[in-house]
Design brief:
Elements: E1 2-7, H1 11-28, E2 32-37, H2 40-45, E3 53-57, H3 65-75, E4 80-85, H4 88-94, E5 101-104, H5 109-126, E6 129-134, E7 137-142, E8 146-152, E9 155-160, E10 163-167, H6 171-178, E11 183-187, E12 190-193, E13 197-201, E14 204-207, E15 212-214, H7 217-234
Parallel strand pairs: 1-2, 1-3, 3-4, 4-5
Antiparallel strand pairs: 6-7, 8-9, 8-12, 9-10, 11-12, 13-14, 14-15
GO molecular function: DNA binding; phosphorelay response regulator activity
InterPro entries: CheY-like_superfamily (IPR011006), LytR-like (IPR046947), LytTR_DNA-bd_dom (IPR007492), Sig_transdc_resp-reg_receiver (IPR001789)
Pfam families: LytTR, Response_reg
């Protein structure tokens, strides 16, 4: 899932943008969560680090888009920003804040589609992650920090650099999501990031973090073949 925010003080434009993004989501069959904010101050006060991309109007009352972008970049270096403006001269200034691009209003669907296609391709290659929602909130889990996943009391427990996160998805759902990024289902109860595998001894899989998980006998041969292929690509 991708989390997109729209920050603009024109309600009609926000509604139009939401409709265009929903159309894109349906056409591309990409799950997109949309949040909207009326101005830069509201965006800052309710900023959510699960946001991946912000469509940010430059000219707004109170805190304008450039000031909001400056503050956001101080706390979130990964978020993408596409500036919205009615005046081209403001757009160039936006690049100081690592803007992905700018769009001159009014918005047309073909332009939005091109920008989202370009950004999503670049984003997925650069920052692969999953979004996990549970009773404690919503979390963006970067895959290069995720060591392994295990079944835990009918849920899943994600072991990351920053601690453990519970997910209410089932293992089959998460396996489908993570396999393209170097994860392998080595056991009915374990899904491991092969980047963190240090060595395999019998059915024990030692991770670089010092943790040990297990491979099942039926999956051991396929897992070792997958590991050999993965390590081969890393050489």
């Amino acid at each position: 899932m991708i989390h997109v925010a729209i920050c603009d003080d024109e309600k009609e434009f926000v509604s139009e943008m939401r409709g265009l993004i929903e159309r894109y989501s349906e056409e591309k069959q990409n799950e997109i969560r949309i949040s909207s904010f009326a101005n830069g101050l509201e965006l800052m006060e309710h900023y959510d680090k699960t946001i991946d991309l912000i469509f940010l109007d430059i000219q707004m009352k109170g805190m304008d888009g450039l000031k909001a972008a400056e503050k956001i970049c101080q706390q979130d270096e990964e978020v993408g920003i596409i500036f919205l403006t009615s005046l081209k001269q403001y757009a160039l200034e936006g690049y100081k804040y690592r803007a992905v691009n700018y769009i001159v209003k009014p918005m047309k669907y073909i332009r939005l589609k091109v920008e989202l296609d370009r950004w999503i391709e670049r984003f997925r290659n650069k920052n692969p992650h999953i979004v996990v929602t549970n009773d404690s909130g919503t979390f963006k889990v970067m895959l290069n920090t995720l060591h392994y996943v295990e079944t835990y009391k009918r849920n899943l427990l994600l072991h990351t650099d920053d601690g453990e996160v519970i997910s209410y998805k089932n293992m089959k759902e998460l396996e489908k999501e993570l396999v393209p990024y170097g994860f392998y289902r080595c056991h009915v109860g374990f899904l491991v990031n092969m980047e963190f595998v240090k060595r395999v001894e019998k059915l024990n899989i030692e991770l670089t973090s010092g943790e040990t998980i297990y491979a099942s006998k039926p999956k051991k041969k396929e897992f070792m073949e997958a590991m050999a292929e993965y390590w081969g690509k890393r050489l």
